[in-house]
Design goal:
Layout lengths: L6 E5 L3 H12 L3 E5 L3 H8 L10 H7 L4 E4 L10 E4 L14 H11 L7 E6 L7 H13 L7 E6 L9 H6 L3 E5 L3 H15 L19 E5 L1 H32 L3 H9 L20 H14 L5 H25 L6 E5 L14 H11 L3 E5 L4 H8 L5 E2 L3 H5 L4 E4 L11 H7 L5 E4 L6 H6 L3 E3 L7
Parallel strand pairs: 1-2, 1-4, 2-3, 4-5, 5-6, 7-8, 9-10, 9-12, 10-11, 12-13, 13-14
Helix pairs in contact: 1-3, 4-5, 8-10, 8-11, 11-12
Bound molecules: nicotinamide-adenine-dinucleotide (NAD).
Length: about 450
């Protein structure tokens, strides 16, 4: 190891790679972020972020002296640690597509070798056995080459949440590292010391939470580390689907899911987080990771009915918006519906597996006029879903104009301060507001002259 600070290369500057790179540079390491997307690299060199993430631009500035952005892999040669953070999207069968990993690993292998141990770390979410596969690819490329390469593979799954990525990286609950090379694990511990011991001065854009306890450093074998990531996402996804399933029954029997969540969440064995009923999860991870885990189960002749049920409940939950519109409007065809929020969650412009997409498509197929508004994700939506015949609105008031119903899909904070009376005035006589995230106070909405429809809340 070259001593402090470490030289770190990050492969892939998406939500995970860029956040990791920026945070590791901020705490003192010399970081090269490598991406094959030349546009991203050019943007980052100008100090601009290709992703919308609170605090990222500020940290980019604070760490600029220790950060390099490039499309070349040559910096891998001098690196102590090389972190893989490329995408692992779903294939059509639900398996993780490992082609980005394999291409990136090939480029790394061709640029290894500085006579000291180099740690190649998998931070992407990958199926069981990927560490072994990565080692095999590198060994095959290096075979016969006269290079002084010493490398070890480690697994370091990432648990950050989009919209809070910087916060979660600087102030994690735990850091998990898996592998069987003791020196490699020690190098990673050194890399993470400023975070493990919280020795850095917290940036203004992301203050240290009061009473923040030092994170645990969990070391384990590579396979368990790979499983920890999938198991964590599967559990969280299942927890959300569980409360959503309960919320549906609450509606039938006249219970209030908010009361139920509070009542069960206070039980320390259950905990109150991820017990918010609504129209379900989306995003780049839960959908693809539950599909990948399930497909690993099938590969081993071990179906996972609990997980499959969680996925089914989540799919049904999105379409419950349509059912609620049918119940309240009776005839949905020909209606005008406004979608408030396109991003899969607030504080991000990420549209991957966003519920708004399925809901919008279903409404268009049913012959509705669909108007949309999102504070940051509209450009991405135009770019990726330009073929959908929706009307883009500059603000919630323009969206409300002539709408029979407005559906709040993403819980952006600004939606808590909507001018509800004015919205009601601009809508047709139906004046329906579906609160897909249960964030509004039903009495406020009703007082403004709107018909409130939540998920599992009573009185509805
Ligand atoms: N996004 C999240 O919230 C999150 C959280 C935890 C874990 N993860 C996992 O982390 C991984 C990355 O996710 P993401 O959301 O950051 O992905 P992303 O799609 O935002 O970014 C991936 C980046 O990798 C680049 N890339 C692809 N092939 C490359 C190559 N050969 N060389 C260099 N760069 C290459 C792409 O251009 C892109 O910029 C995935 O496995 C994901 O499951 C994501």
């Amino acid at each position: 190891m070259g001593g402090w600070p470490l030289r770190v290369c990050i492969i892939g500057t998406g939500y995970v790679g860029l956040t990791t790179g920026v945070c590791l540079a901020f705490v003192g390491h010399k970081v090269t972020c490598i991406d094959i997307d030349a546009k991203k690299v050019a943007l980052l060199r100008e100090g601009k972020s290709p992703i919308c993430e609170p605090g990222i631009v500020e940290l980019l500035q604070l760490a600029e002296d220790r950060l390099t952005f490039t499309a070349e892999f040559s910096d891998c040669r001098g690196a102590d640690v090389i972190i893989l953070a490329v995408g692992t999207p779903s294939t059509e069968t639900g398996k993780a597509n490992l082609s980005y990993i394999e291409t990136a690993v090939t480029s790394i292998a061709e640029n290894l070798g500085n006579g000291k141990l180099q740690v190649i770390v998998n931070k992407s979410t990958v199926p069981i056995g990927t560490s072994l596969r990565v080692k095999l690819i590198i060994d095959q490329i290096l075979t016969g080459k006269k290079s002084a390469c010493q490398f070890a593979i480690a697994s370091n799954p990432e648990f950050l949440r989009e919209g809070a990525a910087i916060h979660d990286t600087l102030y994690p609950d735990r850091i998990v590292v898996g592998g069987d090379d003791v020196e490699a694990i020690n190098i990673l511990r050194v890399m993470y010391i400023p975070i493990l011991e919280q020795t850095f001065v917290a940036p203004n854009c992301c203050p240290r939470p009061e009473g923040f306890p030092l994170p645990a450093f969990v070391t384990t074998d590579g396979t368990s580390a790979e499983m920890i990531k999938y198991a964590a996402n599967a559990f969280l996804a299942t927890k959300i689907s569980f409360i959503n399933e309960i919320s549906g029954l609450c509606e039938k029997v006249g219970a209030d899911v908010e009361e139920v969540s509070r009542g069960i969440g206070l039980d320390k064995r259950i905990g109150s987080r991820f017990l918010e009923a609504g129209l379900g999860w989306g995003g780049s991870c839960f959908g693809k990771d539950t599909a990948a885990l399930s497909s690993i189960g099938y590969e081993y002749g071990y179906p996972m009915p609990l997980l499959e049920g969680a996925v089914r409940v989540n799919r049904r939950q999105r379409m419950r918006v349509i059912e609620k519109l049918q119940e309240s409007l009776k005839v949905v065809r020909g209606r005008t519906v406004g979608i408030l929020g396109l991003a899969f969650k607030p504080n991000t412009d990420d549209l991957r597996d966003a519920p708004a997409i399925d809901i919008t498509k279903a409404l268009l197929e049913m012959g509705c006029r669909v108007k949309v508004y999102d504070p940051v994700a509209m450009d991405n939506f135009r770019e990726q879903y330009g073929a959908l015949a929706v009307e883009y609105c500059e603000n919630p008031l323009l969206l409300a104009e002539d709408c029979d119903a407005v559906v709040l899909v993403t819980e952006w904070e600004e939606f808590l301060r909507l001018p509800l009376r004015e919205i009601a005035r601009r809508m047709t006589k139906e004046k329906i507001l579906i609160d897909g995230r249960n964030i509004m106070k039903p009495s406020h909405v009703k007082a403004a002259g709107l018909k409130y429809i939540g998920f599992g809340r009573w009185p509805a």
